[in-house]
Every structure is written in structure tokens, then in C-alpha cells.
Amino acid sequence: MGLLAASLSGRSDAQWARTAAPYVDGALLGGVAIDAKARAAARESIEDRNRNEFLPSDPVAFIDQQLEQLADVPPYPGVNVRTTTIEPLQNVADVCADHDAILEVNAHCRQRELCAAGCGEVLLADTERLTTFVESAAVTDAAVSVKVRAEVPDVDLVETAKGVEAAGAEMIHIDAMDSETVVSDVAAETDLFVVANNGVRGRETVREYFDYGADAVSVGRPSTIPRVLQRVRNAVDEWGSEQE
Question: Hey, CA dihedral for 227, 229, 234, 238, is it positive or negative?
């Protein structure tokens, strides 16, 4: 995988993945709040700030249905999930394993409602709980990713990466913010598959992240814009040809 479409809150569903399919190697649906506290936080964010969120009555069944709709679509599927508890995470991991899909633990979202509930970005400051989540998902046959954010105060992202790798994660999805060199640090210190995110729009950003050691890049907000996806696809393919 060289190019992924990254989850967009409340918008990244199977149809979104199908639209991106001609351009990407993988598509991460979600994020989906899967336990009671995370769902309450997502509902609050809708009411207070009119955010887009997935709030199906049965999130596990919803994820199963969405992944089933992608069974005939080439890009490797996955789903980004928010949770404060282990049981629903394991249930979703089982579903992902059945669909040969990536289960991505969200330690990234910084919306105040989600952080107050105990999920998203706050997991970066609670490595023990984050690694427990990863371990619980990794006991299934699902490939486990963790989406993280750079520039979180008092968080050493390299140490976090080492922790989730030891817990069984195979991939780390880094929102590099304005600290792109963190991609290089994580790539040098772990054997994780490193996906770089933030500002990926074309040749310059693609080459910068690959030069830093990323194995893939991801596109977030522009993942709904074919011309941007095509431009990034061309840049990824150009880089790959140069490495042969």
C-alpha cells in the first residue's frame, strides 16, 4: 500500500471508498464510535457543533455491512474506531478479521467531547490503556493500526509507537501536524508500517514523507476530490518507479 484514503468523521463509508477506489491502495472507513461513552460523545458533538458522525443503532453490524459492500472493490479496506472499552473493540476486530480488513484504533481525534469521554487523542497520554486496546484487538486475526497525532504535549510519539508495536500493532498512521520529522523518528525506531498523514496534496508532500521513511501516505479531506487523488496517485507511482 502506497496511498490510503483516511477516515473522515461521519463521511467515510463504503460509497466514499468506492469513489476513491480508482486512486488508492486502501481505504479506512469511519471513524465509528463503538461503545456507549464514545457514542454519547459523538452525539454531543452533533448537537453542539453540527459535526458529521456515524451513529447507527448497532455499530458492529454497521461496520460488518459496510465492509461487506466493499468485498468486490480492489482497495484494501479498514475501519477507524473510537472506544473507551475493550469488548466492542474485540467484536469489531473479529468483524475486520472476517473481512480481511484493518482495525484502526483511534488515538487521534481531539474534539473536546471525545477527549472528555476518554477516547481519541487522550489515549496518547495513557500508553498503558492504549496498548491494552491494541493487545485486545491483536488477539484476533485482524491487522491492527493505531492512528496518532504529533505535537501532543508530554507525549513521546516514538515511545508510543514502540509500545503499540510491542502490543501487536502492525501499522501506525501518523498525523504529523507541523512536525514531519516525527515520521522519520518512528520509522527508524520501529518495524511498523508507517503511514504519513497531513497536507498530502501532490508531488512535494509525497516525496517529503517518503524521504522521511514513510511506507505510505494518506489523504484525508481531499479524499472526496478525484483530481487531488489522481495527483497524489501519480506522485506515489512516480516515487515507486524511481525506487525500482
Answer: positive
Confidence of residue 192 (pLDDT cuts 50, 70, 90): very high
d(CA 154, CA 185): 17
Average pLDDT, the chain: 96
Nearest by Cα to 232 from 216, 243, 213, 212:
216
Contact present, 107 and 147 (Cβ < 8 Å): yes
Hey, is 210 helix, strand or coil?
helix
Give the model confidence (pLDDT) of 150-189 as tens digits.
Answer: 999 999 999 999 999 999 999 999 999 999 999 999 999 9
The pTM for the full model equals: 0.97
Helices (H), the chain: 14-20, 36-49, 59-68, 86-98, 112-117, 127-138, 157-167, 181-189, 203-211, 226-243
Cα distances from 141 to residues 88, 93, 118, 135, 233, in angstroms, run 16, 8, 26, 12, 30
Nearest-5° angle of CA 3, CA 24, CA 137?
A: 70
In contact, 138 and 86? CB cutoff 8 Å: no
CB contact burial 106-117 (16+ within 10 A = b; e otherwise): bbbbebebbbeb
Q: Which position has the grid cell 495513557?
A: 126
- pLDDT value at 233 more than 90: yes
